[in-house]
Protein: Redoxin domain-containing protein
Organism: Eiseniibacteriota bacterium
Amino acid sequence: MTRVPTRFDGRPPGVSSRRRSGAHAALPALFLGLALVAPASARAQLVFPDHGQTRRPPEDGKARLAMEELRDLNSAVNDTARVAWAVRRLRSFLAGDPDSSFMMFARRALVRGLIVSNASGAEVVAAADTAAPLIPDDPRQRAFFFGEVAEILLGRRQEPARALGYARIAHEAIPASLEQGRQLRAVLGTVLGTAYARNGKTDSALTVLREALPHHPDSQRVLIALGEAYETAKQDDQAIAHYVRALGVYLGRDSSVAAPLRALWRKKHGSLKGLDERIAAAAKASRERIAFEDRRYEKPAPAWSLTTLDGRPVASSDFAGKVMVVDFWGSWCGPCRIELPVFQRMYERHRERNDIVFLGINWERPGKPEDRLKAVRDYIAEHGFTFPVVLDHDSVAGKAFGIEAYPTVYLIDRTGQIRYRNVGVTPGIEIILEDQIQSLLQ
């Protein structure tokens, strides 16, 4: 399964660990802006998407056929070219009174398919209501399922009362006392706060959104929702402050509050003088947090010695005095497949320089050495990657660096000190990495 570090904003969506295509070929809108990673402990197990529970294929031939079909349908509901067929097939499958062990998978897939196919809010609600009793009593599963449905309804501005009900269930699924769930609870708080606002419950919206903001200080979604709630509450100074921060978010693309901000600024100051400077200051602070502070990782880089695809030895000492951009990846890792083209572009951009090195450190799932090597070579050839690659199939470098998830990109300065660690795939990662590189090349 995929671990998702919870950072939430209104930027373009990340993509799940399984390849998807089309406008909805991404994580639910609820998790826009979240980093996407594959855990370093990942192994080849049969896992249904968005479920997280490993299941052994049944011995019964008919059941095995049903499972194989559901796996295909789980993929198809996220593919805009196949989703209409998948929805029809799922409805037919469910009408055939399938084995109860497959019911939850099919019901959840149908909800996802209706979302991706832009079905009406009423259809999504009906399917979600039918699936709801089948959702396991697991905090994260309940949070993800109900949170996604609530977010979709809010995004479409449909069924606001039902969206609020789902958002409450999702938020309450993650106890405030659960240490590992605090970030996710804050993400869901944004959805809940927005739902409160859409239902005219401004005080409740402000309470929940203020609780979420410290966890997501550079989230356009949180800042805009707070600004709108403050504006509704006639607290103009607070509305201005949050609108300014929203427009200044580094890599933020949502400019929807520009007009209300100008109106409030002119109302307060009589003109727009000083507004651009205020937004520029907010943008500078946001860039510093997102590109640098949040990713700073000051540690000496460990020494290592590995081999290339052709068996040539390579050691970290070979690159002394140079800036290094080191990417830990695997061909099995879905998020890596999204990130590697970025790494390739950056390598091509800087390949003529002699003061910076790009290096991919590969780890493949356990197997025969020749099979692991073939998997790497085939993947690189298939995608035309030309950046240097060394093999870490015994996890020598991975353990030395303390790799917890793939992909992870380290930036090491000329003195051999790790300066930045970038875990997973996040929106704007190419720009973030370039900013970090330029700071080390100065």
